[in-house]
Amino acid sequence: MTMRIAAFDIRRAVLDRKQPLDEAFARFTRELSPRDRAFVRALVALSLRRKGQLDATIDACLTHPLPASAAAARHVLALGLTQVLFMGTADHAAVSSSVDLARARGFERQSGLVNAVLRRVLREAEAFRQRTATARNLPDWLFADWSAAHGADTAAAIADALLDEPPLDLSLRNPAEAPLWAERLDATLLPGGTLRCRPAGAVEDLPGFAEGAWWVQDAAAALPARLLGDVAGKRVADLCAAPGGKTLQLAAAGARVTALDRSAPRLSRLRDNLARTGLTAEIVAADAAVWTPEAPFDAVLLDAPCSATGTLRRHPDAAWIKTPADVAALHAAQRTILESAARLLAPGGVLVYCVCSLQAAEEAAAPPPGFAADPVRPDELPGWEFALRADGCLRTLPCHLPEQGGLDGFFAARFRRG
Ligand SMILES: C[S@@+](CC[C@H](N)C(=O)[O-])C[C@H]1O[C@@H](n2cnc3c(N)ncnc32)[C@H](O)[C@@H]1O
Q: Most buried one in 39, 82, 135, 147, CB count within 10 A?
């Protein structure tokens, strides 16, 4: 029961109080074993990924709405239905644990309803799955934004891709060792050197983690740093760097990296990652919008703070927490940081702006003052030509590489100082 109670508390915190899933998860699962935590995470994440279908199922089963005082009983129904419809939990376990959960969280009066709804959906599970298959599991504004930016068919393909758990992608400290680690990790090698796998256990227990042979980084997230070209021996600023995936890439490629972030806790994760992999970088805790270095850089990578809608496969909560107002505010902050980042470069220096967002408003397609666009050529990213737009910007989508398990959504643009 403690697992279901934790799942309920987390789902309520995310959807009713707009708390990020990671935060709520950390708070409500402290007492649980690693195995139980994994179950809770999978259950809540799936109940967020399938929120539209679950809501449609609940609405079809209720003859009148839940009273306002028991509105949160909807989470009990949603979590029970997630198990019945999408997790293959044993029938009696899903029903009885949901009834117990209703009682445990003060919905004694709704426990009969929970029992009746779950039993009905169990009897007609396939019919309900089909009936709700076209329900949208995303807020309307997000889907409308993607349709306008990427086309309605692509928006639908993105929505489909978000229903699946993403694979685990790893970047290697020494790319020449790819065949060795591909075999040890039972991974496939993607163009550019990312290893892709679907391990059963925890990342920390995988071969190569302790000795820092690799770090976790989605294949799409590994592309923007490559747009800086050969960085060996160059002074490179990595702005908004923590937890450091791109810092590690640049350091492994021989750059003299300054990694800047304003979050001390996130920088300590970056420090841990550097220590584990044996790589080095200068670390600066500062606001990228105002920081001034002593000397200019040869190259700057700006991984700007963003709505993170490109990583919804990992963080399905963001769809229900972020709003159009957040995107507008982020756009303004991104422009400010971009202009500030531009001031760090020596003449001829290269600036890459990137975001893990699917929103067109967060794409900085226009160069900052004194810079010109430097379109990415297809021969720079062999195997990734599909992700290059006609304007020379990089755009990956969750529905890309569907056979291999999809990608995070990233946008990147490259500019050069005149
Ligand atoms: C998308 S994450 C960066 C991921 C990182 N580049 C990587 O590859 O692992 C965005 C980061 O921006 C940082 N950030 C947000 N606003 C900032 C600002 N004004 N100055 C510096 N860092 C900022 C956040 O603390 C966060 O760590």
A: 82
